[in-house]
Amino acid sequence: MGLRIASMYLLEYSKRVYNMDFSNTISLGRQFAAFTKKEYRKFQSSRNIKTYDEEKSFESPFAEEIFKDVFGKEIKSVDAYDYEGADIIHDFNKPVDESMKNKYTCIIDGGTTEHVFNYPQAIKNCIDMLCVGGHFISMVPTNNFNGHGLYQFSPELFYSLFVEKNGMQIEDIFIVKFSATCKTWRIKNNPEEFGERLQFNINVPTEIFVVAKKISEPEGEIKAHQIDYEKDWYKEGENNKKSSKDSLTGKIPRKLLFTVGQFLYHPLNKNKYIEKINLYKLLKK
Predict the structure, then answer these.
(1) Do β-strands 25-28 and 75-79 pair in parallel, antiparallel, or remain unpaired?
(2) pLDDT single digits (tens) 159-218
(3) What distance lies between CA 128 and its chain's CA centroid?
């Protein structure tokens, strides 16, 4: 669990654009400061900050002091175990206490929920803990992190989960390359607006950064259904078209289909759904 420099850029961007309130923030697990002093200086320059206490910020390997330095607010933490000194000990496989509900203005999941077996309960806890108007920020693996945690996450999950009936709405979703360059893409629209699944390949380890807002209390039990099935995109006529298409592609050798998809179709098609952004320039505007 750690805040990388891309995390700091996107937290700062989200605070500016979505008027995020960090006055009562909690992170799932204690977050490490997973960046160098040089990266931190460049980040601060993007905010036009000339003076700050760098040495104090890096006294601890954890990111609480840096968070306070940047956003002027303290950040608490909750964890299933006490070995890293979290402020609250609670196993997110189980429901949270009533005392923790409707309490926090911001919840940061900097790489924790992929390690929680009962993900539906974990996300319900987060929604319960947020006060209306509060934000949930998730920074978790989406591609090429096999073996890292129990799960890797698709954008479809969040677009299906953070909907009005669950008391939530998506503000932004980013895909971030897990490297020193922090190459970043923003998803342009959700599957419902596109009218099709957002399927694209980025053949490097990547994380998905999700910014969602609690707009009301959930209408009932929190549920998620994949949008294309829920919206009944696959009607009888469309099924016939799909069957016809499948019969044609079935005559093409599978190796050729894979090669075309892997090296030609997917790289070109992803630009339909995502746009590349420069985090440094994004803040300098």
Answers:
(1) parallel
(2) 999 999 999 999 999 999 987 778 899 998 888 887 777 877 777 899 999 999 999 999
(3) 18
Strands of 104-109's sheet in order across: 88-89, 75-79, 25-28, 104-109, 130-143, 206-214, 168-177, 184-187, 274-277
Q: Alpha helix locations (H) across the chain?
A: 5-18, 37-46, 54-57, 64-71, 119-129, 155-161, 191-194, 227-230, 236-249, 254-260, 266-269, 279-284
Coil, strand or helix: which one is 130? strand
**In Å, how far from its chain's centre is CA 176?**
10
Question: pTM for the whole thing?
Answer: 0.86
Instruction: Provide the pLDDT for residue 200.
Output: 76
Alpha-carbon distance 181 to 185, whole Å?
12
Residues 206, 177: contact at Cβ < 8 Å? yes
Helix axes 5-18, 64-71, angle to 10 degrees: 40
> What are the distances in angstroms from CA 11 to CA 110, 138, 216, 239?
11, 11, 23, 43
- Angstrom CA distances, 162 to 99, 114, 208, stand at 23, 17, 15
Spatial distance between the Cα atoms of 228 and 233, rounded to a whole number of angstroms? 6
> Are the CB atoms for 227 and 194 separated by under 8 Å?
no
Q: Is 190 helix (H, G, I), strand (E, B) or coil?
A: coil
- With tokens 């900050």, the residue in question is 49
The answer on pLDDT for 61 being more than 60 is yes
**pLDDT (tens digit, 9 = 90+) per residue, 240-267?**
444 444 444 455 666 665 555 555 555 5
Structure tokens at 36: 């160098």
